[in-house]
Amino acid sequence: MNCFSAKTEDKFLKSARKRISGRDADFTFRKAVQRNNAGKLDTSIYVHIPFCESLCPYCPYNRVPLDRDLLQIYLNALEKEIKAFAFENKDVKVSSVYYGGGSPLLAGERLIGINDLIRQSFKNAGDFCIEANPNDIDENSVTLMKRAGFNSVSLGVQSFNDILLEKIGRKYDSKKAEDSLAELQKAKFGWLNADMLFALPGEDINDLRKDIGKIVSLKPDQITAYPLFTFPYTEIARFRKSTAVQSPPLLLRRKMYYEVYDSLMASGYERCSVWSFRRKNLHGRYSSVTRERYVGFGASSGSYYETCFDLNTFSVKEYVKSVEERGNATALSVKFTERMAKLYDFYWRVYDTEIPFERILDTVKYDSRKDLHVAPLTKILLFSGMAVKKNDRFILTRRGAMWVHFLQNLLSLRAISRVWGIAKRDAWPDIIRF
Ligand SMILES: C[S@@+](CC[C@H](N)C(=O)[O-])C[C@H]1O[C@@H](n2cnc3c(N)ncnc32)[C@H](O)[C@@H]1O
Ligand code: SF4
Prior knowledge:
alpha/beta; TIM Barrel; nine-stranded mixed β-sheet
């Protein structure tokens, strides 16, 4: 991954993307004049609450230190944004609602009102899911989540190793992480996911084995294990540059990914996406962004409607001001051609690790003879042993999942980091090419 210079890699990726996506695909966010309408879509909802009690140095998300007064003002704006969208989009059917952050539980009792508003404003508001930091969990917050109607929770455990937790700036120890998980299990939510991080600074394979062994012994419904991405605009990246702390080298990372994969598969879990494993015999899955379409509310949230992707301003203060003035805070928008939409969908199905044939056939319809198309891509997957055919679908192999993991790493670091890096600095950018 580091054999080429960043410039060569960038050139190669851009040229491959152009050939695959078609010549009319334009990867440019432009300043938005208004929010796009969702039409008659079945969609999920994403709600962003950016406040955190303490800011983790590796975190790439849009988050700000907790300011209780500003939080209340922000939540008022959030309700206003939801109402304004619902007024314009009466036919939208909602399949699930996901709260991410930041630390959404800091909104406390207000979550009950926002969930009620969503239920009243849209047809069929399905599952309600929320992300939680172990420090946010106690008897009161669990009761509150129940009253608000959450039936799915993701706990950011990250690690049970006190030294590693301290190194990455988490403000709890392994005992608190374990107690919080137990508290959530006692409350019997419909689905409980635990997030773990690996390839942490200074972590070795034995540390990872212990972490995986521990989380398996606690039996959450789902375990999601991410390698630590180092986004260039985060504190940890600046720290690494100045002190030469390194993340584990590529081969060790590969070994770690296989370690996670093999130990979870051998411990009663099965893969349900590149990063996630659920307990065998359970159905369903906890996931945030792999839904077909979504409407985002809150600072920095994105909305995807197949023909376009809208992005709200990242600045909390500008978000509040803009919602007050025009009922929304859309800052940027990128148009999707039909082919881009098909490929975007294809990308998420690869991420799911299972791709139904009909999706591939549907995608191939949008091929043009001039371009490298999706059909050869699936052939490459099969011949290189990265996928196998089973019934009516392609299934990624262990090796395939590992390469998707690297591809994701590359794409996230390049595209997301570019857009988010600029959007974090400038509340209303004119244009971002990615
Ligand atoms: C929005 S974050 C955190 C939710 C909650 N605030 C917390 O800290 O537990 C959701 C998940 O993203 C993952 N994550 C955060 N920063 C990451 C990074 N730099 N690389 C990979 N995964 C990351 C973590 O596992 C985290 O639980
Ligand atoms: S990882 Fe979670 S708690 Fe830490 S800064 Fe990011 S959103 Fe906040």
